[in-house]
Specification:
By secondary structure, the chain is an alpha/beta fold. It contains 15 helices and 11 strands. The protein binds glutamine (GLN).
């Protein structure tokens, strides 16, 4: 039976299934895009994944994709409708970063990663909700709306790329881009039961990504399965002269790594990642996933990453420090919102006072404090030194093993409102994800089970810098020999 004969509703097709259907002529890009827009129409009231849907533009792009295909043109994502996190600038389409301070900002250019998707024939459906400036783990810090988890509407989708993850989980996009500064692609992917890949630092150009923590930020795909993640990475990865931190290394065909074979691969299990406070069902599912990989022929070795407990404090010094500098540009004059006060100082003060939400203000204050004269050495410099120790932990570990396995999030999706008034509790959700950003390595989250309430659990696989092929290979082999990724959330309406 071919993929299109399985009667999967069009919005629930994976990208590779849709590409096969388009190629065979079973469907057109216009039909596919219309079906996804209809799904958005049906469920968006309840899911709230998008800040804006660009339906007209999407249909025009779909018509163009069909025309190109008819003329015999081929491109890697020709006719595939995708969603973009609203921290990536898009020419002519309002980009707010989930913040009031950028309300009305229409960027004059498009981020490189997004432009590459468009060149590859993708169709852009719109911009997805995010925690303000990507600061948060639940998408509740958006100035505009709270996105809901498609698996349980009373729960958060994770964050900060919660809009993108919820959209993919609900069939409101075939795939999406998120960004990951300390876990924001992987954690929402885990909480929404989809795949999220954070590439190595420098693998994907950050040009046109509104900066949060410049030494940590990476753009990554959120998809239904691992093959789709590889397909998107193929397109967005690679050197960009417009981003001096993008790496010149050639981009392999990441789908070639999906051999289904893990025999002889060494998988490290870090003792420090199985700590008190982790939800027992999460730990059990991750341990079972590792045992499963062992049964497929991988060799599992205990390893130690002794500085793991320092990752959170180090991250929460470095990320706010960089953010405090990056956010200095929002002054009510150059971009978006302006309080319109009579003199310059009042305009700065009121614009920033009214335009930024509480979490962003907290981080600006923390970061400014950590960078101020007299405190710099004790906080920022010390954090950078410990960051080196964390990086060295991984370098040592990757001499012993090819890939490291761990949970993505210590818990499954929590309730809306549960942690929002307790910033420290929210921060603890990042305990397993920030290390990868501090070390600049790559990591992927792949579905590995459900808790007793039916909420998805994510397995995190970490690889060395530019080791995307290894983590994709292991994630794919795991996924293809399990059924977790095939389960779809029960949607809130009788959507087709
Ligand atoms: N939750 C982390 C934070 O709030 C990570 C966010 C992210 O990766 N963008 O900073």
């Amino acid at each position: 039976m071919t993929e299109s004969q399985t009667h999967t509703p069009l919005p629930d097709l994976t990208i590779h299934q849709a590409l096969a259907g388009l190629e065979r002529g079973d469907l057109t890009a216009v039909e596919l895009t219309q079906a996804v827009l209809a799904r958005i129409q049906a469920v968006e009231d309840q899911i709230q994944a998008y800040l804006r849907v660009t339906a007209e533009q999407a249909l025009a792009q779909a018509e163009e994709a069909d025309r190109r295909r008819q003329q015999g043109e081929r491109a890697p994502l020709l006719g595939i409708p995708l969603a973009i996190k609203d921290v990536l600038v898009t020419e002519g389409v309002e980009t707010t970063c989930g913040s009031k301070i950028l309300q009305g900002f229409i960027p004059p250019y498009t981020a490189t990663a997004v432009a590459r998707l468009e060149e590859a024939g993708a169709i852009l459906l719109g911009k997805t909700n995010t925690d303000e400036f990507a600061m948060g783990s639940s998408t509740e810090n958006s100035a505009y709306q709270t996105t809901r988890n498609p698996w349980d509407l009373e729960r958060v989708p994770g964050g900060s790329s919660g809009g993108s993850a919820a959209a993919v989980a609900a069939g409101e996009a075939l795939g999406a881009l998120g960004t990951d500064t300390g876990g924001s692609v992987r954690q929402p992917a885990a909480l929404c039961g989809v795949v999220g890949l954070k590439p190595s630092y420098g693998r994907v150009s950050r040009y046109g990504l509104v900066a949060y923590g410049s030494s940590l930020d990476q753009i990554g795909p959120i998809t239904q399965d691992v093959r789709d993640a590889a397909l998107l990475l193929n397109v967005i990865a690679g050197h960009d002269p417009l981003d001096g931190t993008s790496l010149p290394e050639p981009v392999p065909d990441y789908t070639a790594a999906l051999t289904g074979e893990v025999k002889g691969l060494r998988i490290g299990l870090p003792e420090e990642y199985f700590v008190a406070g982790i939800q027992p069902e999460v730990e059990a599912a991750v341990r079972a996933a590792v045992a499963h990989l062992e049964s497929l022929g991988a060799e599992v070795l205990p390893i130690s990453l002794p500085n793991t407990d320092k990752a959170l404090p180090v991250y929460y010094l470095i990320a706010p420090a960089e953010a405090s500098a990056n956010l200095a540009r929002y002054d009510g004059i150059r971009f978006g919102y302006s309080a319109g006060a009579e003199n310059l100082f009042d305009n700065y003060r009121l614009t920033r006072g009214q335009g930024f939400g509480p979490e962003v203000k907290r981080r600006i204050m923390l970061g400014t404090y950590a960078l101020s004269a007299g405190y710099y050495d004790a906080y920022y410099l010390k954090a950078q030194q410990v960051r080196t120790l964390i990086r060295e932990d991984f370098q040592r570990a990757f001499q012993q093993v090819d890939v490291i396995a761990a949970p993505t999030s210590p818990t499954t999706a929590f309730r809306i409102g549960e942690k929002i008034d307790d910033p420290l509790a929210m921060i603890l959700t990042d305990i397993f994800t920030t290390s990868a950003n501090l070390a600049g390595i790559c990591a992927i989250s792949v579905p590995c089970g459900f808790d007793s309430q039916g909420l998805p659990i994510g397995l995190q696989l970490l690889g060395p810098a530019l080791g995307e092929e290894a983590i994709l290979r292991v994630a794919h082999a795991y996924e293809q020999s399990t059924d977790w990724h095939k389960r779809r959330a029960q949607l809130p309406t009788s959507a087709s």
